[in-house]
Prior knowledge:
283 residues; mainly beta; Porin; eight-stranded antiparallel barrel; 6% helix; globular
Amino acid sequence: MTHGLKTFAALAATGLLMACDGSGGADFGSPLGGRAVTTATVVDSSGNLSIGSPSSSNPVTVSLSTDDGRPVALEIDASSNNPSSVVRFDVAQGDTVQVGPLTTTFRSQDGREFAVIVNPEAVGFEHQSLGAWGNTIAVSNGTLGVASYGDTTPSASIPAEGTSASYSGLSLGFAEVGGTSFATESGVQVNTPDFKSVTMVSTGTIGSPLNAGSSGAVDLSSSLDFGSTGTISGNGFQTTINTTGLTGSVDGRFYGPDAEEVGGTFRATGSGINYFGAFGANQ
């Protein structure tokens, strides 16, 4: 799979630069669990957004409600890590939803909160999805977050050691590089030769500036592309980012009844860099 979510950066930038709560009364669908990374943000008087150091990976639940197959409400709850890391949207309460070919975008009634989730069928996912959200618009202090969520593979169903597998997919996230903040996308490759050791590589990173008055895609591969190595334990894995100029980690999970897919979150820092994202990939 090649990543093709060049719409994400534009959608996120639009949501971030629009000037509430988004609270709704919907009967949200059964939640799917996963992992999330969040960070604090600051918007100055000129509309420039600063992204803080990303959190460690923490639990998240994502609940999506539909009406005749169309999304009408969404709740993302990562409050175990940060009490402000909860967003809720409900069209019955005046919030809006826009379904595109690759992503679905929710915005609160006054535009201050947003969420972008990947349409799983559009990228070939059957057991997972990923998304990003924010409540940082028009406030001096806010939150951005990313999440990977889905049907986790039971530990007993993970392939035996000695089995190899390769997964290709995509990531979406946020970064601050040299004082400019971006919504980001990249291609992702996860490989395990034996379901014991594992590598995760993120390449071809592009970004769309989130600061006021900025626009257009920027090639961030020289600053944000990374490789990582680690080990599989149970139905998940941890890898350490080992790219010059970046320090960080990846928290991955296998999805599907037989580990057909993989997803997770990552976080990295460097000189003038704060970077975090969610990823998903399939065989």
